[in-house]
Write a structure and sequence with these properties.
With about 325 residues, the protein is α+β, with helices and mostly antiparallel strands. It is about 20% helix and about 35% strand. The chain has one domain. Strands 1, 2, 3, 4, 5, 6, 7, 8, 9, 10 and 11 form an eleven-stranded mixed β-sheet that branches. The termini are far apart. The relative contact order is 0.18.
Length: about 325
């Protein structure tokens, strides 16, 4: 019996989740500011990340609005910068509060003037924006070629919107989201241990991600699905899938597969922005600590394009339901 009890204790020591303790003299790596503190610093954090993104992506994004009549995009086209657009929108939202020493007339004039200010370059509040989508490469996302049919099967997976970081923050719970930009803020490594003295090397990652929150997805050919996240590892969840086909010869397919991209085109709509916070602690089986701050830009989508990142060639223009699809000869929805 004693041997059996000893065996159970050893098993618990090796399988229990880690309650991390950092080396003496250093703060615990797994500690994070409470949600309230995080919420209070959101505005400054967004601006800091936006500035960093603009510096690292200098010249990558355009500050011109897009035209739906285009038949060809510039080569190496990335669309508009989501971090910059979000930063400006966030400032506008914060400025909606009337100042203590501001008269009503002054406040109304300031708000009216801000409506006409640029979001980025030539882009105004009512302009058509274009955002390139990040394909995750899993959860149904994919660009798969079938040589026998001389055809690509292209899928984009969208998720339900996360609840806001700030409980009083406005958000559209019916919107669905897709990632536009991911900014790595920090990556570091440390050794953590649990109550039994078992240690593990932990990788700590901090990201600020920017997403489109699509408010009119019911107007688009996007289908609702139940999906087993990561082959069922994390259970069943709700996703939305946009699927399209693209005709291409095997020779051409080899050259274009790695350059196929989705482009969301639409207008900014209320509530304009929201944010969410995600933190996962490391375990023995998954020694990774992950902190994500998610920022959302609300859009009413006009069209979704499939195009070639390198050449700018537009393959498909996916329109809203009921509208005539304006697609190229080698593409179909």
């Amino acid at each position: 019996m004693n041997k059996f009890i000893s065996l159970i204790i050893v098993m618990l020591m090796t399988t229990a989740s880690f309650a991390f303790a950092a080396p003496k003299g250093k703060p615990k790596k797994s500690e994070h500011p409470p949600a309230k503190q995080e919420a209070e610093s959101t505005s400054k954090a967004v601006e800091k990340v936006s500035e960093k993104a603009r510096e690292s992506n200098s010249g990558k994004y355009t500050e011109k609005q897009i035209e739906l009549s285009l038949l060809q995009l510039p080569s190496n086209y990335f669309g508009n910068d989501p971090s910059k657009v979000h930063s400006v929108l966030n400032k506008r939202i914060n400025s909606l509060v009337k100042g203590e020493f501001e008269t009503t007339q002054q406040y109304q004039k300031r708000i009216e003037d801000e409506k006409n200010l640029s979001l980025a370059g030539e882009i105004g509040k009512n302009s058509l924006l274009a955002f390139q989508v990040i394909l995750k490469g899993y959860d149904g996302d994919g660009i798969n070629y079938f040589a026998d049919d001389s055809e690509f099967d292209i899928s984009l997976t969208l998720d339900e919107l996360s609840k806001p970081l700030i409980s009083t923050e406005k958000y559209n719970k019916n919107a669905i989201t897709v990632k536009l930009q991911s900014n790595e803020i920090m990556t570091e490594h440390y050794v953590a241990s649990n109550a039994y003295g078992v240690t593990v090397n932990v990788e700590n990652n901090v990201y600020h991600n920017f997403h489109a929150a699509i408010s009119n997805h019911e107007d688009l050919p996007i289908k609702f699905q139940k999906f087993f996240d990561h082959k069922g590892k994390y259970g069943l969840r709700n996703v939305y899938v946009l699927n399209t086909k693209l005709k291409s010869s095997p020779e051409e397919a080899k050259n274009i597969k790695n350059n196929i991209r989705f482009l969301l085109i639409g207008n900014i709509v209320e509530p304009y922005t929201s944010s969410a916070f995600v933190h996962s602690k490391p375990t023995r089986d998954n020694p990774r600590e992950l902190t994500l701050t998610e920022y959302f830009i609300y859009l009413s989508i006009k069209e979704i394009w499939i195009y070639n990142q390198a050449t700018g060639q537009i393959y498909n223009k996916i329109k809203k339901k009921g509208e005539n699809p304006a697609v190229n000869a080698n593409g179909r929805v």
